[in-house]
Amino acid sequence: MPLFFDTNVPVGYIFKWDPWHSYADKAFANGDSKYWSPTVVNETHKKFKEKKQDYSYFLSDVYRLLEKKKGFFKKDDLISFALKSRSSLKNDKKIIIIEKIWESEGFNYDENIDLILKSLNQIIMDFNSDVYLRKNQFQSNMILHHRQKNYPKLKDKLEKKIHHPDYDIVLDAHDLCSIHSDLEFITSDYIEEKIEFIKSETDISKITDLRKFIT
Q1: For a pLDDT cut of 90, what percent of the chain falls above it?
Q2: Average pLDDT value for the chain
Q3: Neighbouring C-alpha atoms within 13 Å toward the C-beta of 27
Q4: What range defines the domain where residue 63 resides?
Q5: What's the superkingdom here (predicted)?
Q6: How many CB atoms lie within 10 A of CB 95?
Q7: Which DSSP letter does residue 212 get?
Q8: Looking at 137, 157, 187, which one is the last position of a domain?
């Protein structure tokens, strides 16, 4: 079954600390044809720039807070410093990043701060190459669909209940249904009332919550 991805799928795949990453990773691994549109691409580029800057600043700021510390640290100690970061990331995201770093680096319950700083420095150095690699991997495996019609009447209806640019993304998926009537639209913005409205007004018959997508 062909798939059409909403913006949080590519964004979640590119950034391994994103809350949507594990779900996006599974969706991307699906062997079926995978589509996105210029609207999704533009939104992905916009969020990519914002998140790359936010994550880079956060990691560097945590390193700054820790670099003159001595002794052994627990994960909760590292989290407490991370929450002091001046980064604009929300606290729950800061916690997720530290928890995932702690797990991926295989730190002990009590870990020497020198080893933590060494690992953190390497993560900072590798960050740009990692996200660009994932971004290129995603792009190279996607099919870009350009909308063939404007659908002015449908657009007017969608605009009343769906904000920009989401209604344009819905229109792109609706247009793709003229080629693939069995298209499955994958989105993280799954609100039951909104989904039922979209299905009632468009040719999109299957809309799946990214968290519940099964390959």
Answers
A1: 97
A2: 96
A3: 33
A4: 50-137
A5: Archaea
A6: 16
A7: G
A8: 137
- Residue 83 sits in the same domain as residue 131: yes
Amino acid of residue 197: F
Contacts of 23 (CB under 8 A, 6+ apart): 12, 188, 210, 211, 213
**Whether 18 and 83 share a structural domain:** no
Instruction: State the residue for tokens 């600043």.
Output: 57
Question: What's the pLDDT band for 215 if we cut at 50, 70, 90?
Answer: low
Separation of alpha carbons 163 and 186, rounded Å: 18
User: How does pLDDT run across 74-104, given as a tens digit for each residue?
Assistant: 999 999 999 999 999 999 999 999 999 999 9
Which residue has 């979209």 as its token pair?
A: 198
pLDDT tens-place string over residues 18-62? 999 999 999 999 989 999 999 999 999 999 999 999 999 999 999
In order of 10, 13, 53, 183, 201, the CA distances from 48 in angstroms are 9, 11, 8, 26, 31
Comparing C-alpha atoms, which of 64, 50, 42, 66 is closest to residue 18? Answer: 50
**Nearest to residue 72, comparing CAs of 113, 117, 121?**
113
153 and 193 co-located in one domain: yes
Say whether both 118 and 189 belong to one domain. no
Look at residues 115, 137, 159 and tell me which one is the last residue of a structural domain.
Answer: 137
pTM: 0.92
